Amino acid sequence: MAKRKRYYPRDSILEKYNYTCVYCGASASTVDHIEPYDWNHNNDSSNLVAACVECNVIAGDKIFGSFQEKADYIRTIRARGKWRRRASLKIAICCRCKKNFKPGVKGATNLLCSKCAAQVYW
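Above: the chain sequence. Below: its structure as tokens.
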């Protein structure tokens, strides 16, 4: 898959905001469109801000009435902490016995529970 060309100076946008996320104040490494690019195809510098990866993911392609509304939404979601995927909550189904298990716990692999993995590998 070919990379989509950027039609805006990414580094100059990050420098403009001193590599700081406008939503949470963390170190910024991405550029966020205030109004989503898919909605209006606007790459003007007035529509671009520096953002950290997490805030950019939370914002996604949602459309907001104002910048402040978008910033408030992102801060609310970040405060909840539930938006992150946690490895400890991942559950898989064993390919052999069809029981639920947590991969990587007590010798379990990504495909086999610990009991089946012990039988197969030992």
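The mean pLDDT is 80.
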